[in-house]
Write a structure and sequence with these properties.
heterodimer, A: 69 residues, mainly alpha, 64% helix, B: mainly alpha, 8 helices, globular
């Protein structure tokens, strides 16, 4: 993985948005897996570096099987 | 008459925003952005957003693919590829207050302002017209990926709006 330096801000900022989106998708999939593995909200929150309330608010909606990219 | 128009607009907008949220959630994204609003507009039963693309010789259904291509290209530029989440469970935000990214809020407000100024019903093409004016961000990049001429798309959206009001 090569992190672009901001010589071309258009490329760099587009990469930032894409990485942000991928990070969120990975987070949602990983938290869903953690929950199904029996992790507590507290443990998930510690792993994410957020409060238990914040983790719950972000992830407590119904889980869904994602059928597409 | 004005009251009935307002009620209809509220129904259309509720469907639009709810669908944008659903599309984003299906893709593992908690807060819908401008691109999800355009995708939702394309699905509106009024058909005007679709017509706006078709009047330019474009397939509205290609917009979703264009978004994916832009995303994949952006990651590829830094040596990554998008993860595949087929049949993988994902969480969603806790139900409650509707949340969206600023990009979607601004796109929606531009579309709504245009419809209000025109004093005719809010349509999917209003979203496409506003989207065609974006020169940065994923919507602009996806439109470019589709080969869309933004000025022509904006004009075409106007034609679709007029046709729907006739």
């Amino acid at each position: 993985m090569r992190i672009p330096t901001p010589e071309d801000p258009a490329i760099a900022l587009t990469a930032v948005v894409a990485m942000r989106k991928e990070a969120e998708r990975l987070e949602r999939a990983a938290v869903a897996k953690a929950l199904s593995d029996g992790w507590t909200w507290e443990r998930i929150a510690r792993a994410l570096g957020v409060s238990r309330q914040a983790a719950h608010k972000k992830h407590a909606g119904r889980t869904r099987a994602d059928g597409h990219n | 008459m004005i009251f009935r128009k307002k009620i209809q607009d509220m129904k259309t907008i509720a469907v639009l925003l709810k669908r944008a949220e659903q599309i984003a959630a299906d893709g593992g994204i908690g807060q819908p952005g401008a691109e999800h609003l355009v995708l939702a507009a394309i699905e509106l039963p009024d058909g005007t957003a679709r017509a706006a693309f078709e009047n330019c010789g474009l397939e509205a259904s290609e917009f979703g693919k264009a978004i994916d291509n832009v995303h994949a290209s952006a990651l590829s530029a830094i040596g990554l590829e998008p993860a595949k989440y087929d049949n993988v469970e994902q969480t969603a935000p806790a139900p409650g207050v509707y949340r969206s990214e600023v990009s979607m809020q601004e796109l929606f407000q531009a579309a709504a302002k245009s419809a209000r100024a025109r004093k005719s019903p809010f349509t999917g093409a209003d979203v496409v017209a506003a989207a065609a004016e974006l020169d940065q961000g994923i919507v602009a990049q996806a439109l470019s990926e589709m080969g869309a001429d933004r000025e022509r798309l904006h004009f075409s959206a106007g034609e679709a709006i007029e046709a729907s009001a006739a």
